[in-house]
Amino acid sequence: MSRLNPVVVMYDVVTPYGWGAGACWEGLLSSQTALSQVTRFDTHSFLSSNAGLVSDIRPKQDDSLVIQMLKPLLSEAASDIPIDATLFLSSINGEIEFIQEHFLDKNVDPAQSGLDCLLKKVQNLSKIKRPGFIVSTACASSTTAVAQAASMIRCGDTDCALVTAVDCVSEFVFSGFSALMALAPDIARPFDKNRQGLSLGEAAGFILLMSEERAFREGREVLGQIAGWGLTNDAIHMTAPSDTGGRLAAAIQKSLTCADIDIQDIGSVCAHGTGTLYNDAMEINAFKKVFNNNPIPVYSIKGGTGHTLAASGLIEIIISFESLKRGITPGTMGLLSADDLATDMVAPCTSEIKTHVTISTNSGFGGVNAALVLKGK
Amino acid sequence: MNIEISGIGWIKKGICGQFFKNLSYDYDELRSAPSLLVQKSILPSVINKFNSFDTVSKATCCAVALGLDDANISFMTHKMEDVGIIGTNQSGCLESNLKYFKDYVAGGRNLARGKLFIYTLPSTPYAAAAIHFNCQGPLIYTGSSQAQTSSLLIQAKNMVSTDQASGMLAILAEQNYAVCFVIIKNHGQLNGKSLPVDKVISGLDNETDINEIINLLSM
After folding, report:
1. Residues of B whose CB is below 8 A from A177
2. Comparing A6-217 with A226-376, is the CATH topology the same?
């Protein structure tokens, strides 16, 4: 490997399955969804009452929901995070409770909800001294942030990057997705022929990347490699994806070129798989284009965790590395009967993977597409 | 081969312009700006659904139109598959967030408006530009805890130099103000009508904000 190759040396996560990547992995393998009834706010007017909630966090505390997720993760890890790391924060709505409280409860300054304020808090929690970056690219935010961080490492602009990601379930976001008619009435069923929409979720996580040279110098265990990345845009519609999947396919091709590997080297795909009619159809078409009708295991975790918005990419990258470690993919939670075009790709049960290389993809509002090639250790 | 700025378009209240063409145009209201740009042959036709955009999206699209024309790039004929957009602002989408939730609360917390909700994503104004101008490369909203303009240009330059895109539109956009820098590789085709990105970055003050930049450009 080149000494500037970006490698993963540490990660941690909290999801509706609990604290830690292991808890999320075990939850996904248990065939039990972590989606449950929302009691945080009144959902009777919305299309759904269900979401993926982190059980230990509560609204209207001293710390916002997102800080309640990030603080334990980063406080525990701070001593192992270099203070000269370049910090990335991926979030769409940040501490959105400040907006809610401004109108509903008390006279709070809504400007506190800004992502710039959250970036400062994350910087303090992680004890990083260098300036940081916000990356907010809809539901492909953290995948994009990891791509940016990896690119900076590969071209020598930094040798260490901490990518953090967080979004929470709030009335603000829930009402919006309900208004867009995007929510599944029961739970998300990615790639299912009877899928009816997505379920929201909340999560937080971080990945610590280093150049291979620095990781070796510091004696860090290498958990895997960010081998390639590709970012594109459909440029068609604000909320609906391209029906052909052409630009997602292009993002995947770019990531393969960036990684200097062939499609035959890919053993599995962790898809975006939201459970909406159009997103999942778009992805199926993209995967068929890229894999040229030679199917490999494709899975989505959003039937288990819900769609955790900006955090979804980072959680899925971490689960991808867990998958590579174990040589199997989780089944697609919520899947009962696969879409006719995807029967050769997706399954509700685990699948064996034949190579130590996987692809993780995410797409989002505004037509964004992001693909990463991930190599196991 | 250098990474250079080949076009700069800018817009603020009542006036918009182009840096390399050294032109500026007065306009009355932001909603009328696209018609002006059509008159000046900067846009081939008005921007679809422009009047339904929020003000940041409107300003962004106008700045992009001016920037691309300043760079002599016709988005109708140029290969836009590899042109991306990276955008930033200081206020995020605070105004849009307030507008959305105020409307939702005023409606009794029963029915939200999807058309307002979509503007609560920081990336939406840049996505609006990507859709109209067919920019199919990367799309990123970024912010930085350091000098905003420099950071934006550095990131855009790096994306072009590492071949993540053949060109990047680097956009600063606030309510009613926007600047669009067109950043591409100079293979010798620009004939002196360009500025090296590094030179612009080194010339920027740490605290240069969008108003100062527009004032500098419009001088």
Report:
1. 117
2. yes
Tell me the three state secondary structure of residue A112. helix
- Distance from the Cα of B121 to chain A's closest Cα (Å) equals 6
> Among all chains, which residue has been given the structure tokens 């209207």?
A60
Closest CB to A179: pick one of B112, B140, B145.
B112
With beta carbons less than 8 A apart as the criterion, state whether B63 and B180 touch. Answer: yes
Bridge pairing between strands A298-299 and A200-201? unpaired
User: Letter for the amino acid at A95?
Assistant: E
| Min Cα separation B22/chain A (Å) | 30
ipTM of the complex: 0.96
Domain A226-376 has CATH 3.30.70.260: no
DSSP string, B135-183: --S-EEEEEESS-HHHHHHHHHHHHHHTTS-SEEEEEEEETTEEEEEEE
Please write the tens of the pLDDT for every residue from A271-310.
999 999 999 999 999 999 999 878 899 999 999 999 999 9
Is residue A307 annotated as part of the catalytic site, yes or no?
Answer: yes
Record: contact B140-A131, CB cut-off 8 A: no
Q: Can you name the residues that pair with A208 across neighbouring β-strands?
A: A10, A162
> CB pairs below 8 Å between A and B: how many?
171
Min CA distance, B161 vs chain A (Å)?
10
Which pair of tokens denotes residue A216? Answer: 């070796």
Q: Regarding the domain delimited by B2-218, which CATH topology (the fold level of the hierarchy) does it fall under?
A: Peroxisomal Thiolase; Chain A, domain 1 (3.40.47)
How does DSSP classify residue A39?
-
| Cβ-defined contact of A176 to B135 (cutoff 8 Å) | no
B145-190 residue pLDDT tens: 777 888 999 999 999 999 999 999 999 999 879 999 999 998 877 7
State the amino acid at position B215 in one-letter form.
Answer: N
Is A272 considered catalytic here?
yes
Residue numbers in B near A154 (CB within 8 A)? 162
Fold of A6-217: Peroxisomal Thiolase; Chain A, domain 1 (3.40.47)
List the domain boundaries for chain A: 6-217, 226-376
Out of A114, A231, A235, closest to residue B134 by CB: A235
Candidates A48, A97, A232, A253: best to mutate against B (most CBs of B within 10 A) is A232
Question: With contact defined as beta carbons under 8 Å apart, do A22 and A12 qualify?
Answer: no
